[in-house]
């Protein structure tokens, strides 16, 4: 037997009511607008603005060789520009670095906006700690001597960002054969960072421990 509901006009089968609900919901979904995947109709006055396949926007006039479509060969080579940018970045790393911290540590805090979706999901308020860079202890004593940070590199184009500024680091990279550096499995490339390059792969703080002199000597020999 099909259940029914009583109305002013008599009994209405439940199945009929369900059909009416389905039709109503279907019509509601048809009239509800969703953003298209291809970007069309986001601006109803200009339906194709920003859509996939539309023209790129120009803020300056075109500069074709013939004024129509030919490439402008008078412009610098993209390869030259890439090389210049890369070399500029290399020089920046070569002549300066200031990532070490001073002792004692100076820990500061970066305020996080309330409700940040990554760092403050619950909206309780938090911050991101960071340590200030190492500085010359002879500076920062007064208005006539403001703090000056320390350069971890040499200021010369001498390869210090590759070979380091300490002999111990350099020794870990050398093969001691024909004046060459160590190579990994891929020839002409340095080996991957692994326990055989200990100075560049220090143990995490949680496993630091104090060793007796004999144990320390024996483990250091293994390096």
Total strands: the figure is: 4
Distance between the termini: 86 Å
Which percent range fits the helix content? Answer: 25-40%
Q: Sheet bearing the most strands, described?
A: 2 strands, antiparallel
Q: Runs with pLDDT <50, length 5+?
A: none
CA radius of gyration is 34 Å
Which word captures the global form? extended
Strand pairing plus helix content: what structural class?
alpha+beta
What percent of residues are in strands? 5-15%
* Count of discrete alpha- or pi-helical segments spanning 4 or more residues: 5
**Largest sheet, spatial ordering of strands:** 1-2
> Mean of the pLDDT scores?
80
What sequence of helices (H) and strands (E) makes up the elements?
EEHHEEHHH
Write the topology of this structure.
Blueprint: E1 4-7, E2 10-13, H1 14-31, H2 78-95, E3 107-111, E4 127-131, H3 160-163, H4 167-173, H5 213-222
Antiparallel strand pairs: 1-2, 3-4
What would you note in describing this structure?
GO terms for molecular function: heme binding; peroxidase activity. One of its GO terms (biological process) is response to oxidative stress. It holds the Pfam family An_peroxidase. With 223 residues, this protein is an alpha+beta fold. The protein has 5 helices and 4 strands; from the N terminus they run ββααββααα. The protein has helices at 14-31, 78-95, 160-163, 167-173, 213-222, and strands at 4-7, 10-13, 107-111, 127-131. It has a two-stranded antiparallel sheet with strand order 1-2. Strand 1 (4-7) and strand 2 form a beta hairpin. It is extended and about 80 Å long.
């Amino acid at each position: 037997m099909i259940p029914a509901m009583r109305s002013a006009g008599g009994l209405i089968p439940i199945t009929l009511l369900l059909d009416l609900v389905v039709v109503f919901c279907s019509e509601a979904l048809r009239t509800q607008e969703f953003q298209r995947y291809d970007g069309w109709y986001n601006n109803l006055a200009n339906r194709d603005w920003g859509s996939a396949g539309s023209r790129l926007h120009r803020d300056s006039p075109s500069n074709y060789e013939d004024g129509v479509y030919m490439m402008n060969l008078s412009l610098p080579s993209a390869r030259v520009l890439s090389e210049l940018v890369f070399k500029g970045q290399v020089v920046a790393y070569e002549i300066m670095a200031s990532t070490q911290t001073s002792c004692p540590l100076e820990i500061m805090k970066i305020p996080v906006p309330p409700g940040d979706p990554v760092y403050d999901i619950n909206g309780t308020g938090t911050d991101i700690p960071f340590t200030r860079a190492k500085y010359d202890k002879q500076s920062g004593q007064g208005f006539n001597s403001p703090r000056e940070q320390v350069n971890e590199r040499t200021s010369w184009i001498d390869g210090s960002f590759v070979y380091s500024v300490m002999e111990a680091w350099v020794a870990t990279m050398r093969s001691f054969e024909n004046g060459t550096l160590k190579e990994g499995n891929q020839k002409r490339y340095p080996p991957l960072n692994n326990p055989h390059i200990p100075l560049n792969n220090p143990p995490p703080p949680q496993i630091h421990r104090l060793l007796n002199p004999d144990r320390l000597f024996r483990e250091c020999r293994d390096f």
